[in-house]
Amino acid sequence: MKFLKKQPPIRSLIGEGTVVHGEVRFEEGLRIDGEVHGDVTAVGEGHHTLLVISEKARVHGKVKGGHVIINGSVVGPVECDGLLELQPKARIEGDVRYGTIEMHQGAGIDGEVRTIKPSEERPALKLAAASQM
Description:
ten-stranded parallel β-sheet
């Protein structure tokens, strides 16, 4: 049986209708429903953090965290040490670096997309062959 790692709790919230100007640094979990004009950075053990940028959220700055879920808009680079989840309404204007990525249909990136892992750590790409008749 597989055991999933427990998600860190979301302890901070930037609510809808709130506009923050300046750098936002957080530990564990942060959910953004409002707007941030500045960098959003996880501190501490980066890969054990959770950042949720909701459908209504807008971030104008660099985003950096361990597990990042985006369904809103980011204008700036995104760096995710762990899992980057791009939900259907995610829009990123900037370069993206990730450990692992999950991108849903409808999500969009206008920028370069690269893995953080060195090439020797990346799994080989395997394509499924069509069934022979």
